[in-house]
Design a protein that fits this description.
heterodimer, A: alpha/beta, Pyruvate-ferredoxin Oxidoreductase, domain 3, six-stranded mixed β-sheet, B: alpha/beta, Rossmann fold, 4 domains, five-stranded parallel β-sheet, globular
């Protein structure tokens, strides 16, 4: 059984990512639970989705609770820190080191925490990459989540072909090549 | 074939396979994707209705005419639709009628935590509660069988974690059903007192029959494990009970109203301790206790928020898992998008220090700093009635600075009658229709003011100016909110006039139009660090040492920041 928590900022593509993971799980015969967030929080707020995959124990709940996540996949630094309690002992975190300021920080009511990545490294097994920068090299900043999937692929028992099929099934035809390029770059980490 | 489906997608699939012919709905999280998915099935007529009451009436008409029909909504939508629902319970149906209602324990995207099971009981109609997407699909078919067998509308209640969870579903084929003949039957379908006195007897008989049959229904099932602890549960709570208390015996209720009395007595007699675990209200618990069965329930989990496995485990005193405690982090509330046409409107209202009775939609986000310009938000359309109430209570002079603000979809949903009331009762208030020509918050569904139908095909577009004129409003202005000088002038005049005014603040949602302008930049040589541009609350603008930085990937090029900058430091040339 694998519990994955995906966090980010509304609009970053956590929904697409969780659906893609769920699709691969189903294709290779795993039982799957994916819990999504729709509605108000999507407007630039914190978003969190849960993916549970199992080929042994039965799954019931679609939630991953604190200290239960094998993997936390974070699209933004502050959200990575916020999601740290989800990670179980020995779990792994993958972070896009990009920083997006929330409104309380923008208006000066709060401060964006300093040195988040260092902080995370001290407290957990963390792989941090600047996926946004890497995807600009691929030609679209919007494929940052797919770079992270490339990193994630090293931690999950799916074959390369299964990942590529899922990418093809979940992105528009004209963006498939760019996304596969982004995925391959992520795999190099 | 197996498919990973959202609960809402599976409801739509269930409707398709059950031979449903008509579906009407008003969008509302967490129910919206049901009708969006229904629209993908060509064999089902689907539509967005202006509100839930209309949606239920459309579905009821279709059902009485002889076909299987449905309406979908979020929990508070059922309040709007309650009038036809309570009497449809008396008239009964012809073709099956299922009303799908999505509750939101934890209020992820809602204003309250009301429990639809209680409305099922109040209306004397059966209610089903699925635990995963497969059950969502299967229960739809069962709901139609119950509806037709017992001549009643049937509720199917979802909760957020069922509606918005993807689980595996085995797909089936559609059953094509012939429409049942419609036969005129005034005693059944005309709700005059004499007729309904007789129908009430039928309602009572039906409910007793259903309650008796419930004990042998396959969707109410007993899973016997360790008999020391027995749990009665349903829906999402069942999943959490399975994980938190894997050895407990369970009575899983698929039909959550009426309750299977015999089955519950039998189950209770077989276990040493009986506990009821249910999301939201102690609905099962109170009834089961009223039968003299000893059990516990809400003292273990409480009534607030949603259930989850650890909350249940904690209630049973299980050893707590060590959880990491985190330093205080800045919150990340949702915000109005860059380029959102609600932003300039709220900026001006904040500047004029108006008392704003606002409404349900993206524009409620104008409540948050730095715009901070909302005083009230209650339910769809309440802004208009409440602003009128302020005026009638405080008098014209004191209420002069009170305005009502609501979106185009909300106005079509529940605003027109409130405005007519203002006309009729001599209001001198101001109503602002924030018209972005789409139902925004729920993910851009079309509505009568968008000009398109549920399939994206051109449809008649309501003309709000003409509509307000026809309702009797004389002072009507259509203003582009990005023209903040004109918006301010119009608002000042409208709020000081001794007559009712409507301002249509018209500009499309930034998420549905193509960006045409280049992103803005701050010329730090010109910038005097007055930070006026920070007062518009745009997520693309960040304060830096010598001015501000505009994030060019976020900036929509709306130019509002340049408009409020007194020194001309923000440019996109």
């Amino acid at each position: 059984m694998i519990n994955i928590v995906i966090v980010g900022v509304g609009g970053q593509g956590t929904l697409l990512t969780s659906k893609l993971l769920g699709d691969i799980g189903l294709n290779i015969g795993y039982d799957v639970r994916v819990s999504e967030v729709h509605g108000m929080s999507q407007r630039g707020g914190s978003v969190i989705t849960y993916v549970r995959l199992s080929n042994d124990l039965p799954l019931y709940s679609s939630l991953v609770e604190y200290s239960e996540a094998d993997i936390v996949l974070a699209f933004e630094s502050l959200e990575a820190l916020r999601a740290l309690p989800y990670l179980k002992k020995g779990g792994k975190m993958i972070v896009n080191s990009q920083e997006i300021l929330p409104m309380p920080v923008i208006v000066g009511a709060a401060e964006y925490p300093k040195n988040i990545i260092e902080n995370l490294h001290e407290r957990a097994d963390v792989k941090a990459i600047n996926a946004t920068e890497i995807t600009s090299e691929c030609g679209t900043a919007k494929a940052a989540n797919v770079v992270l999937l490339g990193v994630l692929s090293k931690l999950l028992p799916f074959s390369y072909g299964e990942w590529i099929d899922a990418i093809k099934n979940n992105v528009k035809p004209q963006f498939v090549d760019i996304n596969i390029d982004a995925f391959n770059r992520g795999m190099e980490f | 074939m197996k498919k990973l489906m959202l609960g809402n997608e599976a409801i739509a699939r269930g409707a398709y396979e059950a031979g449903v012919r008509v579906s009407s709905a008003y969008p509302g999280t967490p129910s919206t994707e049901i009708n969006e998915n229904i629209a993908c099935y060509e064999d089902i007529y689907s539509e967005w209705a202006p509100n839930e009451k209309v949606a239920v009436e459309v579905a009821l008409g279709a059902a009485i005419s002889g076909v299987r029909a449905m309406a979908c909504m979020k929990h508070v939508g059922l309040n709007v639709a309650a009038d036809p629902v309570f009497t449809a319970s008396y008239t009964g149906i012809n073709g099956g009628l299922v009303i799908i209602v999505a509750d939101d324990p934890g209020m992820h995207s809602s204003q309250n935590e009301q429990d639809t099971r209680m409305i099922a009981k109040a209306a004397h109609i059966p209610c089903l509660d699925p635990s995963n997407s497969q059950e969502c699909k299967d229960f739809m078919k069962i709901a139609y069988e119950i509806s037709e067998k017992y001549d009643t509308p049937c509720l199917l209640r979802l909760t957020t974690r069922i509606a918005h969870a993807r689980t595996v579903v085995e797909l089936g084929e559609r059953v094509e059903l012939d429409a049942k003949p419609y036969v005129k039957n005034p005693k059944k379908y005309i709700s005059m007192p004499a007729n309904m006195i007789a129908r009430h007897i039928e309602v009572e008989k039906r409910e007793i029959a259903l309650a008796n049959d419930a004990s042998s229904m396959a969707i109410n099932k007993v899973e016997m494990r360790d008999k020391k602890l027995g749990v009665i549960t349903s829906g999402a709570a069942y999943n959490y009970v399975r994980e938190a208390l894997p050895n407990a015996s369970i009575l899983k209720l698929g039909l959550v109203y009426p309750l299977p009395k015999d089955l519950i007595f039998d189950f209770a007699s077989q276990v040493e301790e009986l506990v009821i675990i249910e999301d939201m209200e102690p609905f099962f618990e109170e009834t089961i206790k009223s039968w003299g069965i000893e059990c516990s329930g809400k003292e273990k989990t409480g009534v607030l928020g949603e259930l989850f496995a650890r909350k249940i485990a904690k209630g049973f005193g299980n050893k707590e898992v060590e959880e990491l405690s985190l330093e205080q982090l800045p919150s990340r509330p949702p915000v109005l998008c860059p380029g959102c046409p609600h932003r300039p409107l709220y900026y001006v209202m904040n500047k004029l220090k108006l008392t704003v009775c606002s409404d349900i939609g993206c524009y409620t986000l104008g409540a948050l700093p730095p715009l901070s310009s909302v005083d009230t938000c209650i339910c769809m359309g309440a802004s208009i009635g409440m602003a009128h109430g302020f005026e009638k209570a405080l008098g014209r002079e004191q209420a002069k600075k009170t305005v009502a603000v609501l979106g185009d979809s909300t106005f079509s949903h529940s605003g027109m009658t409130g405005l007519l009331n203002m006309v009729y009762n001599n209001s001198t208030g101001t109503v602002i229709i924030a018209d972005n020509s789409i139902t925004g918050m729920t993910g851009h569904q079309h509505n009568p003011s968008s000009g398109y139908d549920i399939h994206g095909l051109p449809a008649p577009q309501v003309d709000f100016e003409q509509l307000c004129k026809a309702l009797g409003v004389k002072d009507i202005h259509v203003v582009d909110p990005f023209d903040i000088k004109l918006m301010e002038k119009t608002l000042r005049e409208a709020t000081s006039k001794d007559e009712l005014s409507v301002i249509i603040s018209k500009s499309p949602c930034a998420l549905i139009i193509k960006q045409t302008e280049k992103p803005y930049q701050c010329d730090t040589d010109v910038c005097k660090q007055c930070y006026m541009c920070m007062r518009i609350g745009c997520p693309a603008i960040q304060k830096v040492e010598n001015g501000v930085r505009v994030d060019e990937t976020l900036c929509f090029g709306c130019g509002l920041c340049a408009n409020v900058c007194p020194f001309g430091a923000l440019k996109n040339t």
